[in-house]
Design a protein that fits this description.
Rossmann fold, alpha/beta, 4 domains, Alpha-Beta Plaits, single chain
């Protein structure tokens, strides 16, 4: 619906113009009227109507002057000048200022109708051309942004066409929705960052190879993203049906030059491809977590490696050495993280590993009733997993069933095995729900028996182990406090300070000063 404004000093003329045509049927809505030139000019500038019916002899400011001033201030709407037979000189001036339509009073209904129809057609054509232009502009913008992200060489632009995004810093984010009900998710990522994106000033959004990519632009939006990451770290486990529960986000480093944007994008893309290695309930992963494969020899998976792990695991299973089984699987998990192989190759390796162990144990204990799953089930399970930790957990559960089936449950030493495991892996993200399946227990039940046998809660015990190791590092190394916090398993240095003061009754700095 186009907008119309009527300006005439005679009320009866204004009323007649309202009623002479069915404006809505013609696609117009009358949004105002004025009885003098000053009010008319003010309304036109403020409301920018598509069509103005303007009396050429307006009080205060003449109609020709209204046309001139309005066009000087950028008004692009259409004018129909209403004039008397003696106003030809004024009409010539209006034509000089670009007015194409004028009608003499009294207004002829048919002439007005034909004029309005012609203007509607022009407005339709102009609107369609503008839409086409904006679409081409958007496509050109997306193509340029695509080339900037992937590192394609961009030719030098003319002075009047600078297509590089302007900001003091940049960062690339890739996110995907992986909820089972992803199509029902209506929120936008900007909602999570709590920002608006007027004229793409905060970020640019584009889809590349099916991935949703955001280019953050400027200190403000980058800080908002850091705030978002810190909120997530504090929550650790997003509630079901919350936005975080259905998003996986990767991000590259911050860069200061548009020509380095592709570096941040490539890091985010590599991380997206490494989602397989994320921990349980992990929804974000950043460039610092990329393995430095260039600075070390990547782990290779081959038959020799497979046979070595097979031999170790079978030996520990036969001896019911649960802690060694757990540590061997943990070592395998770390090595695979530093492998240059693609995910499908890693899954095939793990499938072969389990099938080889199954075959050898079936031969060694052919009289035992070992509850091995079928080969097809094993292949299907490993092939369908999104995460490595799911496969490692599956192996752990299966190996526990095997140990019980061949008659070596060794239940009396399980608590010692758990404590041994904690002592050797305290620097990792150890949680009761992750440890329990490794030793064949329900997490709730393990928590109870741990408290009973050890005399303190699982989390308290881990904290004390970590604090004891941190005390040793404070005394015997020159590491900074935040570095020690990371080495003993605390991601947040403030949280480490809180725990240290709780158990040692003084800050890490005070302890170091007193005992150095």
């Amino acid at each position: 619906m186009y907008t119309t404004f009527i300006a005439d000093d005679e009320l009866i003329i204004r009323q007649g113009l309202r009623c002479i045509l069915d404006w809505e049927e013609l696609g117009f809505q009358i949004i105002g009227e004025a009885a003098n030139g000053a009010d008319a000019l003010d309304f036109i500038i403020k409301n920018n109507p598509d069509l103005v019916l303007l009396d050429i002899r307006m009080p205060q400011i003449l109609g020709t002057e209204i046309v001139r001033r309005a066009k000087e201030q950028g008004f692009t709407g259409k004018f129909i000048i209403l004039s008397g037979f003696t106003d030809f000189e004024y009409t010539q001036a209006a034509i000089h200022y670009g007015v194409d339509y004028y009608l003499t009073k009294p207004i002829d209904e048919d002439a007005l109708l034909e004029t309005v129809k012609n203007i509607a057609l022009q407005l339709d054509t102009s609107k369609h051309q503008q839409e086409i232009f904006l679409e081409y502009k958007r496509k050109a913008h997306d193509m340029i942004l695509h080339d900037i992200l992937i590192g394609q060489d961009i030719p030098t632009a003319p002075d009047d066409f600078d297509y590089y995004p302007k900001a003091d810093c940049y960062q690339v984010i890739i996110y995907e929705k992986y909820s089972h009900n992803a199509e029902r998710i209506t929120y936008r990522f900007s909602d999570l960052l709590m920002v608006t994106n007027e004229d793409n000033n905060s970020y640019e959004a584009i889809t590349i190879d099916g991935n949703e990519v955001l280019l953050l632009k400027g200190t403000f939006i980058l800080q908002k993203f850091q705030d978002f990451l810190e909120r997530y770290e504090r929550e650790q486990k997003p509630q079901t049906n919350s936005p975080l529960d259905s998003l996986f986000i990767t991000y590259g480093r911050t860069v200061t030059s548009p020509k380095d944007i592709h570096t941040s994008y490539e890091e985010a893309l590599r991380l997206l491809q490494r989602r397989f290695f994320c921990e349980h309930k992990q929804h974000t992963i950043g460039y610092k977590q990329l393995p430095q494969l260039e600075s070390r020899k990547p782990f290779e998976i081959n038959q020799d490696v497979l046979q070595n792990y097979c031999k170790q695991l079978i030996g520990y299973i036969q001896a019911a050495k649960r802690n060694q089984v757990a540590e061997t699987l943990h070592d395998l998990e770390n090595n695979l993280y530093n492998s240059a192989e693609d995910i499908q190759e890693i899954k095939l390796f793990l499938t072969d590993l389990y099938l080889t162990i199954k075959e050898k144990l079936s031969h060694l204990y052919h009289n035992a009733d070992i509850p091995f799953p079928g080969n097809g089930d094993i292949i299907a399970f490993v092939g369908s997993r999104y995460y490595l930790y799911e496969i490692i957990l599956y192996f752990t559960e299966q190996f526990e069933l095997i140990m019980r089936a061949i008659g070596n449950p060794s239940s009396d030493s399980v608590m010692d095995d758990i404590i041994h495991y904690i002592e050797h892996n305290y620097m990792d993200n150890i949680k009761l729900e992750n440890i329990a399946p490794l030793f064949g227990y329900n997490s709730s039940y393990l928590g109870k028996i741990f408290n009973k046998k050890v005399g303190e809660g699982f989390n308290v015990f881990i904290d004390k182990v970590r604090i004891n190791h941190s005390k040793d590092l404070l005394i015997n190394t020159e590491l900074k406090v935040y570095e020690i916090a990371e080495k003993v398993g605390y991601r947040n240095v403030d949280y480490f300070h809180t725990k240290f003061k709780k158990y040692v009754k003084e800050s890490p700095a005070e302890f170091r000063k007193k005992n150095k």
